[in-house]
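Q: Mind making up any chain with C-alpha cells?
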Amino acid sequence: MRRSIIMLQGTASDVGKSVITTALCRIFTQDGWNTAPFKSQNMANNSYVTPDGREIGRAQGVQAEACGKCATTDMNPILIKPVRDMHSQIVVHGQPYAQMSAWDYRQDFLPQARPLVMEALNRLRDQHDMVVMEGAGSPAEINLKDRDIVNMNLAGWADAPVLLVADIDRGGVFAAIVGTLELLESHERERVKGFIINKFRGDLALLQPGLDWLQQRTGIPVIGVLPYEENLHLEAEDSVALQRKSSIPLPDRELDIVIIHYPRISNFTDFDLLEAEPDVSVRYVDHPDQLGTPDVIILPGTKDTLGDLEFLQNRGLASCIKKQHTRHSVQLVGICGGYQMLGRHLHDPAGHDSPSPRMAKGLGLLPVSTVFASAKTTVQAEGHLNTESPWFQQMKTLEPPLSVKGYEIHMGTTTVESRADVQPLFHLHRLSGKKGNPATIEDGCILSDGSAWGTYLHGVFDNNQLRRSWLNFLRQRKGLEPLIQSIHGQTRREEAFDRLADTVRKHLDMKRIYEIASGQ
C-alpha cells in the first residue's frame, strides 16, 4: 500500500524548509505516524554519520532524530560537499563517489540519478506511514529545471503534493510566491497545495489583506503564518547561519572562545552547546583584527584542509594564532581538519585534498604530521579521556573514566612524530568501523602542559560532563571557581523538537496538512 507523503519547497534558500520539515517530522511522530524525512540531493559541509558509518546531510540526521529514528542513507542518498569553487565531492549513499565540477555533475551524473533517488524514496515509503520530503533552493531556477532531481521533477516522480515556503522577514514575500508560481509549468503549479509564510514579526491583522489577495490571485490557500523564532536550539546545516554569528565577545561571560571561520568550514555544529553554556562567549572570526586575546582559539573542521590552511597563512591568522599561543598562553584546539593544521606537515601525494599533489607546513604547534589518501573514515566512536592527560590530571575532582562519544569524518591519517611532550587525548572504540579501520584506537594528542590539543572526534563538546570539565579546566587556569554541569545536550535537543512542534501546530492548519498528505 502506498503511504502518505508531502513535500516542502521554498521560494529561495534559507527560507526555513529544513526547520519546518523537522517540525512536521516531530508532529507526525507525536501523532503516532511512523515517519521518515527525505531529501534526494543535499549540498552541505555540515554532515552526519549514520550508525553504519555512512555520511549524509546533517539536516536529515536531525530530522531522523525528530522522528525518533536512526538515520539511514535512504533519507539523503546524494550529498554534495563543496571543496573549492565549482568543484565538490559527490557522496552517494554515504560513500565518496567522485570529485566533480558543477558542469560535469550536471552533464554526466544527474541524467543517471533518477533510479538511485527513487529506489531510496520507495524503500522509505514501503517502510513508513508518512514521508516528509524537502526540496532545495527554489523550484523556479529555470536554468536547472530540465535536470532537477530535488524539486518539481521529484515531486512528479513521487506524485507528491507540495507546500511552498516563503520568508517574509527578507521582504517581498508576495512577489516571491507569485513569481515562483509564474515560473512553474502548469502541471507543476497544480502540485502546490498551500503556502507557508515563515519568520513573521508583525501584527497578523495587518498581514491578512495580503493573505486574502494571495489566495484570490492564485487560488491556493495560505496554510499558516509562522512567527520569527530565535534560539530554536536546532543544529544549522548551511554556513549561511554563521553570517548571523558575532565576532564580538559577549559581556559578562568569563570565558572567551574564538572559532576560526575559514571559507570551507564544516561541522560547526560541534560548538552549539558551548554557545549555550552560561559562562562562555563563542565568537567566529576570519581576520586577525577580530581575535583579541581569548582564552581559547579553536580551528574547526574543514572540507579543504590545505586550502583553508593557505587562507590562514595569507590572511595573517596563522602567525597571529601562534603568537597568541606563545605570548599570551591562549589554549589552541583543533578538530579534524583543524587538528591536521596544528601539526607540522601535511602531505597530499596524490591530490586527494587539493587539485594536485602538494606538501605544506602546518602551524607546528603539535608534533604530528598528516598524509591524505583516497580512503575516507566515517565512523561513530566512543571511549574515554586518557587519564594520563594533563586535562584529566589537573582536574582533581574527576573520577575515571570520563566518557566521550562522537563521530569521525576525514580523509587523512595523522601520526604523532614525537611522544616526548604529548599524551594521547582519547582512547576510542570505533562502533561502525569499515574493513581496514582498527576498532580500537588512540585519538588525538595534547601537550604536556595542556596548552594545545587536537582530535578527529566531531561532537566532542556534545558530551555533557566532558564539556563542563574542560570549561572548568579553563576556569581553573584563570583562578575561577568551577561551575556545576547545567546544560544537558540530549534533553535540550528533545525539548527543542517539542517546542518547535508546539509552535507549528499552533500556527499551521494541521488538519489541512494531513488531508493534503493523504491526497485529499
About this structure: Residues 489-507 form the longest helix (19 residues). The mean pLDDT is 91. The two ends are 16 Å apart (CA to CA).
